[in-house]
Amino acid sequence: xxxxxxQPTSEELDSEQKxxxxxxxxxxxxxWAKQTLSxxxxxxxxxxxxxxxxxxxAWGTGGxxxxxxxxxxxxxxxxxxxxxxxxxxxxPPIKKNFFEQQSIEQLQQLTSLEADKxxxxxxxxxxxxxxxxxxKISWDEIxxxxxxxxxxxxxxxxxxxxxxxxxxxxxxxxxxxxxxGSNNLADCSDLCHAPSTWGLKRxxxxxxxxVSLKSLKETDCxxxxxxxxxxxxxRLMNELIELRDRGGKVIVINPVKEKGLVKFGSPAFxxxxxxxxxxxxxxxxxxxxxxxxxxxGIQKSLLEQEKINQEFLQEHTEDWSxxxxxxxxxxxxxxxxxxxxxxxxxxxxxxxISSSPQVVFAxxxxxxQQQNGVDNVNSIANTALMTGNLGKLGAGLMxxxxxxxxxxxxxxxxxxxxxxxxxxxxxxxxxxxxSRVPGYDTHALIExxxxxxxxxxxxxxxxxxxxxxxxxxxxRALGKIKTIIYLSTKPNLGHFHGLAQQTIVxxxxxxxxxxxxxxxxxxxxxVRLNDEGTTHLADSDLIAEVDFLTELxxxxxxxxxxxxxxxxxxxxVRQLIAQTIPGYxxxxxxxxxxxxxxxxxxxLNQPHFPTPSGxxxxxxxxxxxxxxxQAQDFGVTKYTHGLVLxxxxxxxxxxxxxxxxxxxxxxxxxxxxxxxxxxxxxxxxAGLREHQRVTVKGNVSQLENIEVIYGEIRSGAALxxxxxxNVIFDAPVDTRCGTPxxxxxxxxxxTS
Length: 752
Ligand SMILES: Nc1nc2c(c(=O)[nH]1)N[C@H]1C(S)=C(S)[C@@H](COP(=O)(O)OP(=O)(O)OC[C@H]3O[C@@H](n4cnc5c(=O)[nH]c(N)nc54)[C@H](O)[C@@H]3O)O[C@H]1N2
Ligand SMILES: Nc1nc2c(c(=O)[nH]1)N[C@H]1C(S)=C(S)[C@@H](COP(=O)(O)OP(=O)(O)OC[C@H]3O[C@@H](n4cnc5c(=O)[nH]c(N)nc54)[C@H](O)[C@@H]3O)O[C@H]1N2
Ligand code: SF4
Ligand SMILES: [Mo]
Fold this sequence. Notes:
binds iron/sulfur cluster, 3 domains, binds molybdenum atom, 30 strands, alpha/beta, disordered N terminus, 34% helix, binds ligand MGD, Dimethylsulfoxide Reductase, domain 2, Rossmann fold, Barwin-like endoglucanases, globular
């Protein structure tokens, strides 16, 4: 692309050294141009134009309408995160003799970025404890070992998955595991939006977004809590820009002032791109982990302003009076002390919400990755109900999902919390009762493995080692497992640190390479169809996930009652999905019609909820008791000079979860990953200065030589990147759904 055509009008758009003053903007186009004009450019374009869904986030783009189109038929909806993901997938294969030259000890020295840059997995390998190297393994040997590993006591078999694979692979995975008699279906959503699913299900009987993209386009106000959509769901920013353009409001709730949530330049709109669009109408910066207090504060203010929609509560909800009484009973002092946001600011937020005819409440990891994640979600939903913002067009609840098919995995039954209807349908299909022994979610899986209760683990994508807190413990726990089978596209740290007694890595084809059609589900409940594709790894020995799973299932289960080998033709898997998964009936025709569809029963445009009474249940959300340990609690001497902060751990600009693409995070002013973003006043009060190197200590270990960078982050809080930071802490979990409190990690920052 000719950069002259997209001249920035102000200094804010770019300079190699300067921190951009808006999100998006020229750096995005520069990256896009660099990648698509590179030698790999034609392949990137070919993939962008392939009829398959974007690999990256669950906002969803692509599919049958074409690579750049969303479900409303709008063009230019592909962001550079998509290009970033494709560029990583079209890397050359790992060389055939690579593992002869590199010992496991050497591979363990790699960073996440270096591991990803090794290239694509292109032949199967095995590592046995006691050996020094990964070695090639034949398919016969793999199936022999795998069959033996699965023919054991069912409770000792488990799976973990990451939401990048297809619905078809997800369905087969859970069917195979449940047919064995195990419910151990841990999934990355346990680390992610499980509190949303859990919290929404108990209130509304359905655990996904109640808002379609179409409905979002009708809204007057979006409350965006604990999300950095400018980095992680860039095309959602287009909706916020259009909302502001039509006079609507955006309330951002985030301890960090994220550049792109203040102002964002989207390449989809020329004016916005050139000068940047205002996003936040108001920006509230609460103490990490305190969102319940903030939302109860909004509720209290709504009560005081007499803006509660009593009629809606009476007609459509249950237990509303307790929730109102709770908000009334908590003092403003308690609220503002807990969340660190002033009463005046909370009142402005409440005023905006009550004066907007339709409001969408959206949230991501800042809300869910907390010890009280479910309460956070429920406090948001209570606020929506009190203002009648559910069950009508333009209003509702929108958990902003992570991986591109993470929601599909949940729908397909890859969960420890299986819906009754699916359980019954699967029992009919398998002609036997499913086990009633509760399965391990991700947290429970690590605990069980550490207790020696897991012998076999199959990982459909992901990086179980890197995604969990307390990396040393995870490494130890995985080391107690007899066999781990990783089905992966690209190498990651998990393959080198998450080693069982025998570890097999199976190289798989990705979404745009599969020889058969597949489907995925977006966070907006829209099912996309991916066409068949080809791989650039022509001489390699890769397999489609569906082919491996069906062959393994065939060897373990035989042909009764399911003909597993027939299911290698994914159209038959779709028939089974249509029969067993509520709302997925239309998938039965998708091979003929190619008609992508919205899952029925999920988008709520009427205030009638899929609960037994048809009403929404409301729950009182207790305020969290937030305190931080003292410096001495970290086991340092009383002479150690430092400060205790509440650390939020999350994503930098150029990474996808545990996979780092580039090290800098330009928009936050971080030139490398060993940085801690801090409030200037906090740092100076503790005698620290910017760019000084410090030690950051958690409850497990410490990271040294971390550079202090000042940012617009509230006092008492700090931010660092995962997966690196997972080494230093173990996190408490929300006991209802096992999600770790990644966003409120007490750390001591000091100089030695
Ligand atoms: N490019 C890219 N896209 C991605 C991903 C990626 O890694 N890279 N990952 C995908 C996945 S799996 C997921 S789950 C999503 C993640 O998407 P996000 O949830 O947007 O990502 P995070 O970086 O985890 O954190 C989000 C925000 O939460 C804020 N926050 C932290 N603590 C609190 C708190 O206590 N309260 C509030 N209100 N806010 C808080 C942080 O400041 C941060 O801005 O993105 C998906 N999309
Ligand atoms: N401290 C901290 N920890 C966190 C978080 C946080 O915010 N802070 N966030 C958590 C969240 S929200 C999540 S979702 C987890 C992410 O946890 P995971 O989903 O387990 O991790 P990813 O890094 O997304 O997994 C990347 C790997 O997936 C494989 N892969 C990619 N595409 C495919 C495919 O099509 N098929 C197969 N079989 N494999 C594929 C590649 O080998 C790649 O290396 O991390 C969690 N951990
Ligand atoms: S917003 Fe998400 S789904 Fe859409 S193109 Fe970007 S990464 Fe892909
Ligand atoms: Mo996630």
